[in-house]
Write a structure and sequence with these properties.
By secondary structure, the chain is an all-alpha fold. The protein is 66% helix and 0% strand. α1 runs antiparallel to α2. The relative contact order is 0.05.
C-alpha cells in the first residue's frame, strides 16, 4: 500500500505541475492545489479519528492476547532463547 502511494506520488505531482506551468506560466496554482489536497487529507483523517469510539482501559491487552498466543503456537522456535541448549540454531556441545 505504501509503495503504491509512493508510486502515485512520484508520478502525478510532476504531471500536474507541468500542466499548471504550461497553462498559467507559474507553479503557484500547482502548489496551492497540493496544499489543498494535503489539508483535505488532514481533515478526513481528523474526522475519521474522532468518529472512532474511545478505547476502554485494558482493551489493547485483551485483544493482543490471542494474537500473541497464536504466534507462539505457529512459530515456537522464534520464541525460544538461542542461548538455551537444544535450540536449533545452537551448535551441539563438543564431545
Amino acid at each position: 500500500m505504501a509503495g503504491a502511494a509512493g508510486g502515485l506520488g512520484g508520478f502525478f505531482p510532476p504531471l500536474v505541475m507541468a500542466l499548471v506551468k504550461s497553462l498559467t506560466g507559474s507553479y503557484t496554482l500547482g502548489f496551492i492545489l497540493f496544499a489543498a489536497v494535503a489539508i483535505l487529507g488532514l481533515l478526513v483523517l481528523v474526522r475519521l479519528e474522532r468518529s472512532k469510539p474511545a478505547p476502554r482501559r485494558g482493551d489493547a491487552l485483551r485483544s493482543a492476547g490471542p494474537v500473541l498466543g497464536a504466534r507462539e503456537r505457529r512459530f515456537p522456535v522464534l520464541m525460544q532463547d538461542p542461548a538455551q541448549p537444544g535450540h536449533p540454531g545452537r551448535a551441539p556441545p563438543p564431545g
